[in-house]
Amino acid sequence: MNPYEASKKTESLCRLAPVIPVLVVDDANIAQPLAEALIKGGLTVLEVTLRTPSALQVISEMAKVQGGVVGAGTITKASDVTDAINAGAQFGVSPGSTDDILEACEQKKLPILPGAATSSEIMKLFNLGFSVQKFFPAEAVGGQSALKAIGGPLPHVKFCPTGGITYQNAKSYLQLQNTLCVGGSWVAPKNLIENKNIKELNIKKRNHIDSALGLTTHQGIVIYCNPLIKVNTLEEIEKENLVLILDSLTDSQNVGSIMRTAFLFGV
Ligand code: 3PG
User: Going by DSSP bridges, is the β-strand pair 261-264/182-184 parallel, antiparallel, or unpaired?
Assistant: First the structure.
């Protein structure tokens, strides 16, 4: 799979959903329910970081869930590529771009979203054929305004910015012409997806509903709520295991409309 083919694939993945959850999961037992919840919420592309001892097992478990596409993040060396493929990853994400990773991905046919932070890195990747890249660490290297500026001289490169993206600033990125989607760990924070915290959050569920309806607080696992899931009442929200409605990241011109973000507990 050459870089052009890889970018074609990663572009189609980046267009599937406006947000790619970046998942740091310790407990493989939570992998399937978490993937089911995120996919049900409309986040069908999942990035599992290779940062925990169980990451490969987590990928294997998540890959069994229907309706999603699971990839491996934090690929930092060539052997990660083989491990990710063997675990069932369908794409890879790297914070940077080294020759050995790019070669391994080409040889092993793993579509890679290679990381870049500067114009030179972006140009180097683009000249190899990577027209879709991860812009990382997005906020630390200038954020939305940097990415917008890069789009001036380099309009043909499309990005998935990650690193410091939150539900508050996601919208500003998604409005850029050169941004296909954003990635972030805020969607499912590590501390909140561990079993004990999910239980804790269940207890607080009602409070969160009340807060959410008042559009005041937010805490928990934020998911993109598929516009096709129509929920209007508290009963319907409970039935869907969703806690509505936190914010509206509306009308991204590139990726369709993000109708709502929602909290999800008790999956
Ligand atoms: C990553 O690869 O770790 C992502 O960029 C996530 O960054 P975040 O934790 O700031 O969302």
Answer: unpaired
What CA–CA distances, in Å, run from 155 to 69, 124, 135, 179? 27, 15, 14, 11
- Give residue 240 CA to ligand 1 midpoint distance, Å: 28
Q: Which residue has the tokens 């890069």?
A: 150
- For the record, the structure tokens of 97 come out as 């771009």
**Whole-angstrom Cα distance, residue 153 to residue 8?**
21
User: Is the Cβ atom of 136 under 6 angstroms away from ligand 1?
Assistant: yes
Q: To test ligand 1's pocket by mutation, which of 23, 76, 185, 222 has the most ligand atoms within 8 angstroms of CB?
A: 185
Q: Which of 48, 52, 37, 103 is nearest to 73 (CA)?
A: 48
23 and 32 in contact (C-beta within 8 Å)? no
Which pLDDT does position 81 carry in this prediction? 98
Which residue, judged by its Cα, is nearest atom 7 of ligand 1?
A: 163
Cα separation, 24 vs 13, whole angstroms? 20
Interval 163-176: pLDDT, tens: 998 767 887 888 89
47 is catalytic: yes
Cβ atoms of 228 and 153 closer than 8 Å: no
- What is the per-residue pLDDT across 183-234, written as a single tens digit (0 to 9) for each? 988 777 776 666 544 444 444 444 444 443 332 333 333 444 444 444 455 4
Task: Please give the Cα distance from 18 to 4 (Å, whole number).
Answer: 22
- 162 CB within 6 A, ligand 1: yes
Task: Output the CA torsion sign for 113, 116, 122, 124.
Answer: negative
Burial (CB < 10 A; 0-12, 13-18, 19+), residue 232, is exposed
